[in-house]
Design brief:
The protein is α+β, with helices and mostly antiparallel strands. 41% of the residues lie in helices and 14% in strands. The chain has two domains: 91 residues, Phosphorylase Kinase, domain 1, CATH 3.30.200.20; 175 residues, Aminoglycoside phosphotransferase (APH), C-terminal lobe (Aminoglycoside 3'-phosphotransferase, Chain: A, domain 2, Alpha-Beta Complex), CATH 3.90.1200.10.
Length: 293
C-alpha cells in the first residue's frame, strides 16, 4: 500500500530535526498505516498514527527488553525516543540485513522464546484483541449500513464472550500480531518485528494467527500446521476457547480490509467478500481470503 509521500515526508523531516538526524536522502520503504523510511547509515524511521504515542513508547521498551533477553528482534536505536512530529509519534531502528518474509516455522520459533520469558517490569497492559476495531468498522464507508451494524453487533458479542473466556495456558507476554509478515528471515535466522500490540495475556492469541490460516483462510496446509503445533507443543484448535479467538481474529481481518477498501477501490471486493463469509453468504470455512497489503 502506498500513498502520497508528501505528508509523511513532512513528518519525517520534523522528526529527524528533533532527533538530530538528516532526512535529506531518506527513501520510503512502505507507506501504509505506519510510514517506514530508510535513512543513510542503516537507520529506519517508523512514523505511527496520531494518538499512538503510548504504543510507540511500548514498542521501544519491548525492543530493548528483548535485546537484553537475547531474543532475535529488531533493535531500537540508542537514543531518546519516541519523538513527536506534527502530532505523530516517531521511532528509530537499526536497519535489518537483507531478508525476506518469515515462514510459519520462523513464527513458532520466535513465539517459543517470547512466551517463555518472565513478565517484565514494563507498562504493557492487558491484551485487548479488539483494539481499533470500532474505528475500522466506522471507517468502512463502502459497506452497506446493515453490514456495518452487523459487524458492530458481532464485536459486542465477542467482547462479552472474551470477558468470560475459558482458562488456557499460563498468561505471558504476547506479541499481539504474530504472523509471518511480522517476522523477517535473515541469513542469520528469523527476527521478530512490530511490537505495537505487545501486551500481557493468553499465549493462545499469538497461536491463533497461524491456526486461522488453516481453519479460516486455507493459507497454511495441514502438514505445515502440524509442524507448527509439534514445535510449540500445543494445538490451540483443541482448546475450548479456540472458536472465540478465531472469530475475534476473523473480525479484525475483516474490519482491517473494510477500512482500507474505503480509500482503495481495488480492495472493495475482498472486503465485501470477507463480510459475506462471516455473515454466512459465502459457504463454509476455510475461505480463500486474499491479502490486501
Amino acid at each position: 500500500m502506498t500513498t502520497s509521500t508528501t505528508p509523511a515526508r513532512d513528518v519525517l523531516q520534523a522528526a529527524c530535526v528533533a532527533a538530530g538526524l538528516d532526512a535529506a536522502d531518506a527513501e520510503p520503504i512502505r507507506l501504509a498505516e505506519n510510514a517506514i523510511w530508510r535513512l543513510p547509515g542503516q537507520m529506519v524511521v517508523r512514523i505511527a498514527r496520531p494518538g499512538q504515542l503510548a504504543a510507540a513508547n511500548r514498542e521501544v521498551q519491548v525492543a530493548r527488553w528483548l535485546a537484553a533477553q537475547n531474543v532475535p528482534a529488531v533493535r531500537a536505536l540508542d537514543m531518546r525516543q519516541p519523538v513527536t512530529a506534527n502530532g505523530c509519534p516517531v521511532t528509530f531502528w537499526q536497519e535489518l540485513p537483507p531478508h525476506e518474509i518469515g515462514t510459519v516455522s520462523d513464527v513458532v520459533t520466535l513465539l517459543k522464546q517470547l512466551h517463555a520469558l518472565p513478565k517484565p517490569d514494563l507498562p504493557l497492559g492487558d491484551l485487548d484483541p479488539f483494539v481499533r476495531v470500532v474505528e475500522r468498522i466506522d471507517a468502512s464507508s463502502t459497506l452497506a449500513q446493515d453490514d456495518r451494524q452487523w459487524l458492530h453487533d458481532r464485536l459486542d458479542d465477542l467482547r462479552a464472550q472474551w470477558s468470560a473466556r475459558p482458562q488456557g495456558l499460563p498468561e505471558c507476554v504476547v506479541h499481539g500480531d504474530a504472523w509471518v509478515g511480522n517476522v523477517a528471515r535473515t541469513q542469520a535466522g528469523p527476527v521478530l518485528m512490530d511490537f505495537e500490540r505487545a501486551s500481557f495475556g493468553p499465549p493462545e492469541w499469538d497461536l491463533v494467527s497461524t491456526a486461522v490460516k488453516l481453519t479460516t483462510t486455507g493459507a497454511v496446509s495441514a502438514d505445515e500446521y502440524a509442524e507448527f503445533c509439534a514445535a510449540y507443543g500445543s494445538d490451540v484448535t483443541e482448546w475450548a476457547g479456540y472458536e472465540l479467538l478465531a472469530e475475534a481474529r476473523e473480525l479484525r481481518m475483516t474490519s482491517y480490509a473494510a477500512q482500507h477498501a474505503a480509500t482503495h477501490p481495488q480492495w472493495r471486493r475482498e472486503a465485501q467478500y470477507r463480510v459475506d463469509c462471516l455473515r454466512g453468504r459465502a459457504g463454509v470455512r476455510p475461505w480463500q481470503w486474499k491479502g490486501i497489503m
